[in-house]
Amino acid sequence: MKNPAAVRRAIVLLVLGALYATPAAIAFIRQWQPEPIVAGPGVTKQVMLSDYFKGLRGTPGDTEVYILEGREPGGTILVLGSTHPVEPAGLLASVILVENAVVKKGRLIIVPRANKSGYTATEPGQGYPDRYEIKTDFGTRWFRFGMRNTNPIHQWPDPDVYTHYASGQKLAGAECGNLNRCHPGHPNGRLTDKIAYGIYQLIKQENADISIDLHEAPPCRPLVNAICAHERAMDLSAYVTVLLEEQGIKIRLEASPKNLRGLSHREWGDSTDTMALLMETTSPMHGPLHGPATVDLLLTAKDDVYVWASKLGRTVQKHTERGVPIEERVGRHVTAIMCYAQALSEMNPEKGVVIEGIPSYQEFLKNGVGHYLKPIAE
Ligand SMILES: [Zn+2]
Q1: 247: left (phi > 0), else alpha (psi -120 to 50), else beta?
Q2: Ligand 1 centroid vs 280 CA: distance in angstroms?
Q3: Separation of 262 CA from ligand 1 center, angstroms?
Q4: Which of 67, 226, 341, 367 has the greatest count of CB atoms below 10 A from its CB?
């Protein structure tokens, strides 16, 4: 070697590069590992979404489906968490149901990670944490935070313009990775279309009477603390808003727009017999205005920037210094699902779904989410 000093310098640079890159690579790869979910006492069967549509088998879009079946026949309620993996209350509400619910009559089907691919990365430039912990009675449980869309390495490249299969509606290219613009999906489409098609097949093959898509929205969006329901789910949803009000939960009811295509509450209702709806709680984390995207913001929704915007009248939902703690957001989703089961049972007893083992809204507020999470076996 002619220049030993240059070789030494190159080796030092390589070692320094490896020192920087290794922790980043480890942090990046750990996002591919799904958080543990404990099948609770009510889970009678666990299958995969690919059992409804084989085209998903072996893809990053395949995901767990938990079935909780009662001894007495009745109706079927489907709950979908994590259409958008940047909205943690949907995942946590689904996990609480899987780990605690015991169904006496009818069936509850839960897909906690509807867009599982979206958990394998976070959005570039947003500074999002890739996971967070929830304090429990025995220690902590960890959960991932992901991106709004399907991970682009699983579906690349985006077109300039995204055309929705069923309607021909045109949207910005990146929306082709947004699960809630791809319903009812297509068996030969991109991965997100295939996930949507798997969910459509699940609803059809399991004859879901009610299908619920769980979301969170920042306070500046029009649809916050609200239910958006297909016209066939309107009567039932109106009754649910009354039941929720009795428990101290104020929720708005909106009609699913007929011309806005690709959304769960529209397409599931139009293409199957299910009563389709979407529910939103509040989370500033993925809004356009929020302060630093920390785990604290994710769990408390305390955000000075949104408080300021709210005081200026720039938010739809009033946002105060109090924030909206995660137990309140998860409690709203879970309580609303329980109210749908009650409403279905009262309005159509043959199709009733009776669920036990779920804490009340007040118990969520008092004890927190972690109190209802199960320990992970070593
Ligand atoms: Zn959403």
Answers
A1: alpha
A2: 7
A3: 13
A4: 341
Which ranges of 31-61 does DSSP label H, i.e. alpha helix?
Answer: none
Report whether CATH 3.40.630 matches the domain 31-372: yes
Q: Please state, in angstroms and rounded to a whole number, the distance separating the CA atoms of residues 260 and 222.
A: 15
Phi, psi of 51 (to 5 degrees): -70, -15
- Domain boundaries along the sequence of the chain: 31-372
pLDDT, tens digit, 9 for 90 and up, residues 44-76: 999 999 999 999 999 999 999 999 999 999 999
The reported pLDDT for the residue numbered 378 is 73
Distance 180 CA to ligand 1 centre (A): 8
* Ligand 1 center to 138 CA (angstroms): 31
Q: How far is the CA of 4 from the centre of ligand 1 (A)?
A: 57
- Give me the mean pLDDT over the 258-265 stretch: 96
Beta strands in 112-225 (DSSP E): 131-135, 140-144, 161-163, 170-172, 210-217
